[in-house]
């Protein structure tokens, strides 16, 4: 059975209603699960996850967009929360009172893009877009990479988040060829290239073990910089694609690196990297689809890392995003670099 191109995706494949029970995505349950998350303030887990709250909102909102329910969370409440995390220097913390950090600044910019909130940003912080861009630029290091915050830890995740957020702000040097560059994009991509290993994959820093999460950040950064094709070429894509395709285990699920357990989130990190190098067909898509669907809680909604485990919003987002890449019927198409609805990103960036 083909799961390709369902309604709204321009193809003639199966619709969700034609699929057998074990291949049904419980869309309404997932929407209700995400809507319920902010009402669980008396649960320990709510407080234990405060340090990543704004990313949690990005994960939930992205999942809702891909499920075709972009308005299932109240826009005003989302914007109020985002602005309560904003600092004078243009950075965002994970929650009110938390220090600004690149990861949460990226999630905040993504939420602002998804909620069309940039006009409100200017009311909360005059010249807000430029202040956010300058905060991001201030974290670039002499060797081209980016720190996560003022304390200086570096990681290819932070570099990618910097480029992604700048791109949504329209402030990447390749988006403004006639303006003085706000960051050194060549130094940034040189650093990413130095993170590539002999196996064709990428690590968190030069010389670090290949990991598919970092493959996403490095391939995504090269995509945003417009350098992916010229740098990798077909041979580089084949070598990286071979390493990524070895991430699939007999259960159909994917792991992040050799000898590790499968986890539904790698359905995103691995598959979107495959999408950016045009090698999605190197994975058994039917088996992966089935694995992702087994990670659902069919009663309460949400997805877990593995079948039978407790669900959470992180795995819910990346499982659904993986299904979107696999063209599960009825889901909105996801943009591989931005991990947001592709129609939204296309419109937002004025892409055809
Ligand atoms: C815009 C989608 C988006 C992301 C922003 C934060 C970020 C950029 C990317 C994270 C990439 C990454 C490193 C993902 C991997 C996450 C993960 C499950 C790490 C677990 O690592 P280990 O070593 O697990 O605990 P393994 O599976 O290797 O045993």
Task: Sum up the structure in keywords.
352 residues; mainly alpha; Glycosyltransferase; two-stranded antiparallel sheet; 1% strand; globular; disordered N terminus; binds geranylgeranyl diphosphate
Compact summary:
By secondary structure, this protein is mostly helical. It is built from 15 helices and two strands. The longest helix has 18 residues, at 228-245.
Describe this structure in words.
It is a single chain. The protein has 352 residues and is an all-alpha fold. It has a domain at 1-48 and 247-352: Alpha/alpha barrel (Glycosyltransferase). The chain is 47% helix and 1% strand. The protein has 15 helices and two strands. It has helices at residues 27-36, 44-48, 53-66, 75-84, 102-114, 118-124, 128-138, 156-168, 185-194, 212-224, 228-245, 266-276, 285-294, 313-325, 342-349, and strands at 303-304, 311-312. Strands 1-2 form a two-stranded antiparallel ribbon. Helix 1 (27-36) packs antiparallel against helix 3 (53-66) and helix 10 runs parallel beside helix 12 (266-276). The longest helix is centred in the last third of the chain and has 18 residues, at 228-245. The two termini are 32 Å apart. Residues 1-12 have low confidence and may be disordered. Geranylgeranyl diphosphate (GRG) binds at residues 103, 106, 157, 160-161, 164, 213-214, 216-217, 256-257, 260, 263, 265, 269, 339.
């Amino acid at each position: 059975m083909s799961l390709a191109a369902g309604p709204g995706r321009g193809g003639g494949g199966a619709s969700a209603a034609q699929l057998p029970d074990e291949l049904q995505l419980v869309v309404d349950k997932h929407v209700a699960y995400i809507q319920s998350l902010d009402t669980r303030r008396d649960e320990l887990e709510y407080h234990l996850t405060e340090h990543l709250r704004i990313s949690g909102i990005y994960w939930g909102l992205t999942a809702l967009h891909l499920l075709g329910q972009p308005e299932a969370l109240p826009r005003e409440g989302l914007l109020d929360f985002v602005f309560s995390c904003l600092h004078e220097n243009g950075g965002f913390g994970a929650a009110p009172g938390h220090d600004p950090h690149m990861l949460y600044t990226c999630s905040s910019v993504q939420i602002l893009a998804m909620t069309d909130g940039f006009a409100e940003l200017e009311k909360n912080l005059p010249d807000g877009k430029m202040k956010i861009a300058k905060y991001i630029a201030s974290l670039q290091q002499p060797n081209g990479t980016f720190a996560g915050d003022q304390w200086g830890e570096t990681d290819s995740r932070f570099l990618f988040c910097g480029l992604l957020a700048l791109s949504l702000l329209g402030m990447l040097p390749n988006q403004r060829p006639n303006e003085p560059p706000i960051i050194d994009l060549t130094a940034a991509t040189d650093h990413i290239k130095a993170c590539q290993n002999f196996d064709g994959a990428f690590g968190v820093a030069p010389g670090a073990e290949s990991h598919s999460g970092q493959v996403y950040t490095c391939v995504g950064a090269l995509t945003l910089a417009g350098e992916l094709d010229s740098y990798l070429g077909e041979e580089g894509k084949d070598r990286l694609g071979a390493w990524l395709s070895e991430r699939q285990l007999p259960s159909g699920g994917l792991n992040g690196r050799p000898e590790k357990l499968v986890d539904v989130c790698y359905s995103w990190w691995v598959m979107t990297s495959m999408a950016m190098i045009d090698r999605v067909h190197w994975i058994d898509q039917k088996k992966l689809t089935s694995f992702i669907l087994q990670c659902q809680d069919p009663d309460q909604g949400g997805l877990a890392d593995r079948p039978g485990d407790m669900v959470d919003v992180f795995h819910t987002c990346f499982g659904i995003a993986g299904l979107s890449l696999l063209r599960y019927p009825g889901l909105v198409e996801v943009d591989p670099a931005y991990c947001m609805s592709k129609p939204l990103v296309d419109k937002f960036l004025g892409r055809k």
